[in-house]
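Appendix C reproduces, verbatim, an entry submitted by the partner laboratory led by Prof. M.T., so that reviewers can inspect both the input and the predicted structure.
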Amino acid sequence: MPILESKKHDMESLNALFEHATEGIIVSDKTGKIIKANPSSERLFGYDLGELLGKTIEDLVPKRYAGSHTKHREDYNAHPRARAMGKNMDLHAKRKDDSEFPVEISLSHYKQNEETLVIAFIIDITERKVNEENIKKLNLDLERKVDERTKVLHEALLELENSKEQLSQALEAEKELNDMKSRFVTMASHEFRTPLSTILSSISLINKYSAGDNSEKIDKHVHRVKSAVTNMTLILNDFLSAEKLQEGKVFLRKEEIHFQNLCNEVLSEINGILKQGQKVIYDHQGLSDAIFDKQMVRNILLNLISNAIKFSPENKNITVKTSITPKELTIIVKDEGMGIPKEEQEHLFERFFRAKNVTNIQGTGLGLNIVGKYLEAMEGRIDFESEIDRGTTFIITIPNKH
């Protein structure tokens, strides 16, 4: 008898738990028919005492979900297991008056007389959802304010950074200009000393040879004077061009030019620096006229051809080929000189750069840097090929357009 009394006591406890639980508890069979419903579930769904019995679970689901819910219920009956529903997803239930409310549901199951019954534990989470929505709105408002403040701060920092950058650029430009002027003074004192000495000694010798038949010797020294003066002029041109580019004083002035005439002028000007046995072979193809900035192209020709002469030995030819089409002007300058070391080619267009194998030859290290800047202004490009002791070829292309 004590065992019976114990079981009776357990049943009374379970029944009390079922009747007085604060969350809704509904028991249904495999067809979804409700066979038990505690008072909390009846209050939750707005039904009177005992009114839920005999209804189906789908009666408590909003109509738009009823069809899919039947399938979910059948799947659960096929593989019953304890599980929580509603976490990380929105579930809604329907009251007797068809009003809807958010719920969280946990499912479990048990067997009775060989029949599987499903227990649903249902919680109304309306208040939680309202609180979550309020928190979401507060978070959105906070994020908006943070974004606004961040944007204001970012703009202030950007303005400060721009000011800092502008100041840094101005200081850097001033530093580069002062550095260039300092290098000019140092280089000029070194580079001009040799040609000036050559000029003075040659003039003295010319005066000495003026009496008598010494025309060949006089011609030789006159050539030396011309060569020295031309070299000094080229050096000065490099520095003046570099300073103008640095200060932004170079402007593009396009005009229609008879190109062969310009080339012949340049070749005549640098004729004085040709070494013994050197010869410039010039060939032109295509149109005669092109539209470009005359002074820029003139300086490009002077730089490339004078370099070819300087870096080539005696008795070697320098080949200059030009061509003009309606689309572009092409200039090719090829020498048979010492070439540029492969490991140094990437620095070729840097300011003041001079390859290790040309340190004993006069030059500023500015020429190719200036050529690159001029081509950039004219939307042109420069390519080159070079091999040690076999020479260098520069290929310039410039758009032929207004």
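The longest strand covers residues 100-112. Additional entries are available on request from the coordinating office.
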